[in-house]
Design a protein that fits this description.
Chain lengths: 192, 747
């Protein structure tokens, strides 16, 4: 059963590698430090004190309790999006390294590279699917299932990623002996 | 008969000696050759798109020991505005070597661009050498800076021997004659100035034995002292004593050895101490807490002067020097400082994590390399936010008594990036971030509402909840009548508003409706391991947690229902770089991502329209933060927990004595939190809409779908199937399912 899981996951790996040729870190909105409230450049040798002068003054009267705001019926628009981030070239280079290690049978080494990729691309579904695949290769199906679920939570409306994730999940669950869970995951994949 | 008993006795004694000998040599060997563990910050990753400001990069380079120079020599860099040329030294990481390289990059808008490797192996991403942030010597909360006998001013051991053990170099571990001499000296002085135990005996006592004063222990102490002397040189024993002796307490941490004591009491290294300071330290051996110079300066001065006299008697100093030394003040720094340990609160947490997997001896002696998750740039911003904001929050005695903590984690990895344990981040005492367990107030509400939202057939974000007072009567006759913070009641309010405005009455009503056990279950799933009250008052946050625990449970809210255990350590290797342990990323789905998405909406609303909106006075709107305020009775605890796309931070402000303040979550902890967030370049929070969630424009008052352009329209997420079925026009007239008069007919 597990072998079968590994087999499917490897197929998926090839698929993700091909599909993952993203360009640039898209998706998330990057916000530089906030203008005038930026912390002052610190002294390099001395500590504390006057050097940490602050350009902006907090006034308690600015706090919400002190001033009841006008009730606007119109709401601010919530921030949400339909899909996670694409892999940046830097993250992609680490995923490629991980692929090589996986091929040579070094699942642990692959996990180390992928965790490094995850730190710089934490909102990319692909990284989590890759982690799942590395855990499958190391025969650790529990973490593999969880990373697949995490990847799925970031796949959003991307049908390609959704399908890859649900199929991966089906493989892992079947290898775990969870037939019902596997069937459910397969149904989700084919419903896409 | 007598012979037989004696023979048995001798055999037993011999056996006992063999055992004691093994104990003595085993432990002593371990201590004598200990090499401190080295602790590293996370390495800075350089690549196109990496978020870092020019100032932060320069600071990071300085921490890693880079010099400003030509950028050609390894370990140097050149900066021209936002343009950097860096020559790295290379570093052996647990996962392989990072070779020497020459790098070029530009920083624009707090982001790396045009990253290239101009010499060395090409790479799209490169790690700088990690900054060394400390050494770990102890596990049992013992802290010390190791000193070698050669580096200790000769007066110190001489004075120590004059007071504690004059015949140290002559005896064989125990000195019966010195007991008599000590008694005599004590009688002459009219108080205890000398002890009868030799330095060897004192070391054995600290090293191997408990503090009980039993005959058996005394016997063991004597035997072990003799054994120790048999095996080791006097100087070895003396050096170990100097590093072992207990000399004070900093919160939960004990100050051991003269090396650290010197830093701790004088802020100076041992070799720079004067006669009167050496005398004080030697005097404190007798009772570090009784003679604590900060708490009991008079006692300490008396004791110090006695030691100075003993030194004079022993001919170590002349009368003039002695008189001068006696005339000086104690010379103690106002508060303890460590030059060794710049991030005491963070290192404290690292130690506790290490203690799960590593033995004391290993940490002390094996020269381990510990790779932590500390991000120096984030730590700097966090410390600045606390020290800069706190003085502005209150004046007078309350202001002086105010303390604060800030915990920052990476939202999706659970790595603890920064930890501030109090208003003085350099102070190595009570670590509030870990050990201050305080009621969390309204920080609990998201978990109550999440429990409700996981039942989409019963609760949506616009479900009307009753904001109306009521009284609970318990079996024992006690009554509980919760109130809103402002004392007002508003009738029916939609659930999202009840959370974003943090109304108490709806929260309790919803909590009682889904049941306290269900809310407790949610909290458990999100990582609370400490006891949780079963009383309904827990729904208003009577349950106490440490700031780090709050960060742990909010991790699951920030990551769409995935519990991500907090980590401070990535890897531990031995001194040669071989990996000993890895602490991997773990995720565990503990809640329905769809329900968490709904909750995240309400937590964003909290920041835009609710109790957290003052954050946007200093934080750019684009960060689209999500968070929650928390306040306990009389402003004893002011909490704020919230997150951006990259970071999760928890701030607490309050008093150590649990006294009242005039602060709320929004006026105490939030300014600290926002001050931190505003300084750090990062991504906005914009969660991916999970499967099975759809957004609809609704009129919450009418519980119906409506059109985007209507004045009272709000775009709300719904779990599929729970969205309203009716639709109203902007004026509120039903457009579909016109049922009004019809329903009336049959009711």
């Amino acid at each position: 059963m597990i072998r079968q899981g590994v087999f499917h996951a490897s197929m998926l790996a090839a698929f993700l590698s091909l599909a993952g040729c993203a360009s640039g870190p898209g998706g998330s909105i990057y916000v530089p430090a906030g203008g005038s409230t930026r912390a002052p450049e610190p002294p390099q040798t001395t500590k504390g004190g006057e050097d940490r002068e602050n350009p902006q003054v907090w006034r308690k009267s600015e706090q919400p309790e002190a001033r009841e705001p006008e009730q606007t019926q119109r709401s601010n628009k919530p921030s949400y999006r339909d899909a996670g981030d694409e892999l940046s070239p830097a993250a992609l280079s680490l995923v490629r390294e991980a692929d090589k290690l996986l091929k040579s049978g070094d699942a642990q080494g692959a996990i180390v590279r992928l965790e490094r990729a995850q730190r710089i691309a934490p909102r990319s579904a692909e990284v989590y699917f890759k982690l799942s695949q590395a855990y499958v290769a190391g025969n650790k199906l529990g973490p593999a299932e969880q990373f697949t679920l995490k990847g799925l939570s970031l796949a959003g409306s991307d049908v390609r990623l959704q399908r890859a994730g649900w199929l991966l999940l089906a493989d892992i669950r079947r290898a775990q002996g969870n037939v019902a869970g596997a069937n459910h995951a397969e149904e989700r994949a084919s419903a896409l | 008969m007598f012979v037989r008993v004696s023979a048995i006795g001798l055999v037993l004694l011999a056996g006992w000696m063999v055992y004691l000998d093994a104990v003595v040599t085993d432990r002593f060997e371990g201590r004598r050759f200990e090499v401190p563990s080295r602790v590293y910050a996370r390495p800075l990753e350089l690549y196109d798109g990496a978020g870092v400001s020019s100032g932060a990069l320069e600071r990071e380079l300085a921490l890693s020991g880079y010099r400003k120079g030509d950028g050609v020599r390894p370990g140097s860099y050149r900066r021209n505005g936002g343009h950097f040329v860096i020559s790295t030294r290379g570093f052996r990481f647990p996962d392989g070597d990072e070779p020497r390289r020459k790098l070029a990059l530009n920083i624009y808008g707090d982001r790396i661009q045009d990253f290239s490797v101009s010499a060395g192996d090409s790479a799209a991403i490169v790690r700088l050498e990690p900054a060394r942030i400390g050494g770990i010597y102890p596990a049992h909360k013992e802290d010390r800076i190791l000193v070698r006998l050669d580096d200790v001013p000769a007066l110190l051991p001489a004075a120590l021997m004059a007071v504690e053990d004059r015949k140290f170099y002559d005896h064989f571990g125990i000195a019966p004659t010195s007991i008599g001499r000590a008694m005599l000296a004590n009688m002459r002085a009219g108080q205890v100035v000398q002890g009868g135990s030799t330095l060897t005996q004192q070391l054995v006592k600290n090293f191997f034995l408990t503090r009980d004063q039993t005959l058996l222990r005394k016997g063991n102490e004597a035997l072990m002292s003799i054994l120790l002397e048999l095996h080791y040189e006097k100087d070895d024993i003396l050096e170990t004593y100097l590093n072992e002796v207990y000399l004070g307490q900093a919160g939960t941490r004990s100050i051991n050895g003269f090396g650290l004591a010197s830093q701790f009491y004088f802020g100076d290294s041992l070799k720079d101490l004067d006669v009167h300071q050496i005398a004080l330290l030697v005097g404190m051996v007798k009772g570090p807490s009784y003679y604590n110079p900060r708490r009991h300066p008079e006692r300490a001065t008396q004791r110090r002067n006695l030691v100075i006299s003993e030194m004079e008697d022993a001919g170590l100093i002349d009368a003039t020097k002695a008189a001068r030394a006696r005339g000086l003040s104690l010379g103690v720094s106002a508060k303890p400082s460590y030059s060794e340990n710049r991030y005491p609160a963070y290192i404290d947490l690292v130690r506790r994590h290490l203690a799960r997997d590593y033995k004391e001896e290993d940490l002390r002696s094996e020269g381990l390399r510990i790779f932590t998750t500390l991000n120096p740039a984030i730590q700097y911003a966090a410390e600045f936010a606390v020290t800069d904001t706190l003085p502005r929050l209150a004046n007078g005695d309350t202001g002086k008594a105010l303390e604060a903590t800030l915990v920052v984690t990476a939202k999706d990895t659970g790595e603890v990036l920064a930890l501030v344990g109090g208003k003085d981040p350099q102070y190595a005492g009570f670590n509030r971030a870990l050990d201050a367990n305080r009621p969390i107030g309204s920080l609990i509400k998201p978990f109550t509402y999440l429990t409700a939202l996981e039942q989409p057939e019963r609760y949506t974000l616009m479900t009307p909840v009753l904001d109306k007072s009521f009284t609970l009567e318990f079996d024992d006759g006690k009554r509980w009548q919760p109130k809103n913070y402002d004392g007002k009641e508003r009738g029916e309010v939609p659930l999202h508003l009840a959370l974003s405005k943090s109304y108490n009455l709806p929260a309790v009503r919803v909590g009682l409706d889904v049941g306290v056990p269900a809310v407790r279950k949610t909290l458990r799933a999100f990582g609370v391991v400490t006891p949780i009250s079963e009383y309904p008052s827990m729904l208003l946050g009577s349950v106490a947690m440490s700031p780090v625990t709050v960060a742990q449970i909010y991790q699951g809210l920030a990551t769409s229902g995935f519990n991500t255990p907090l980590r401070t350590i990535r890897e531990v290797t031995d001194s040669g770089g071989e990996a000993l342990s890895r602490y991997s990323l773990k995720v565990d789905q503990v809640a329905d991502p769809a329900a968490v998405h709904l909750l995240q909406y309400a937590m964003q609303e909290t920041m835009q329209e609710g109790t957290g909106r003052s954050a946007y006075y200093s934080v750019p709107k684009e960060l689209t933060l999500a968070g929650k305020t928390g306040t306990t009775d009389d402003g004893r605890d002011s909490w704020f927990a919230g997150f951006s796309g990259d970071l999760l931070a928890v701030a607490w402000v309050g008093r150590d004595d649990n006294g009242p303040t005039a602060l709320t979550g929004a006026t105490g902890a939030l300014p600290v939190w926002a001050r931190f967030m505003a300084q750090v370049p990062q991504h906005g929070f914009s969660p991916v809409v999970p499967d099975g969630v759809n957004y609809h424009w609704v009129n919450t008052e009418r519980q119906a779908l409506t059109d985007e352009y209507c004045d009272n329209a709000r775009l709300l997420p719904f779990i599929s199937g729970s969205e309203p079925t009716q639709r109203v026009s902007c004026s509120g007239t039903l457009e579909r399912k016109i049922r009004g008069w019809f329903e009336g007919l049959f009711q």
